[in-house]
Amino acid sequence: IIDAFYTKALKDNPDLTVDYSCPISVFVTLFDDCDELDGRRIIFNSYHSKYPDTIFLMQKRELFLGNDWNLEQSLRTDWENLTPNNLGYGSFYNDGNISKLEDDLFYTDGLLFYRII
């Protein structure tokens, strides 16, 4: 799961050293109201960190859980079509920088982490 979490970081920096001694923490928030859609919005905030104050890597991803959707549909949430004025997004924190986690990477290698979760 740590390797799946580091997919983008390792593509950006293949020489990156990953600390396998620390856990990944995942915080999940579920919102029942999702812009009048028939379903819910779920937000994953995931951190690979070392207590008390070191964050190695952070990811945030928002997905839609449609009442009649299967898991694969939810994992591939297309916010631009669902709610173009209220986009869910993924973000990626590494080395003090926050950037958008691009969908093309998320839908290939990055999706494995969220399938595991």
Provide a brief overview of the structure.
With 117 residues, this protein is α+β, with helices and mostly antiparallel strands. The chain has helices at residues 2-5, 7-12, 71-75, 79-82, 103-116, and strands at 24-31, 39-50, 54-66, 91-94, 97-100.
From the structure above, extract its key features:
single chain; alpha+beta; five-stranded antiparallel sheet; 35% strand
Secondary structure blueprint with pairings:
Layout: H1 2-5, H2 7-12, E1 24-31, E2 39-50, E3 54-66, H3 71-75, H4 79-82, E4 91-94, E5 97-100, H5 103-116
Antiparallel strand pairs: 1-2, 2-3, 3-4, 4-5
Describe this structure in words.
With 117 residues, the chain is an alpha+beta fold. The chain has one domain (2-116). 28% of the residues lie in helices and 35% in strands. The protein has 5 helices and 5 strands; from the N terminus they run ααβββααββα. It has a 5-stranded antiparallel β-sheet with strand order 1-2-3-4-5. A hairpin with a 3-residue loop joins β2 and β3. It is elongated and about 45 Å long. The relative contact order is 0.21.
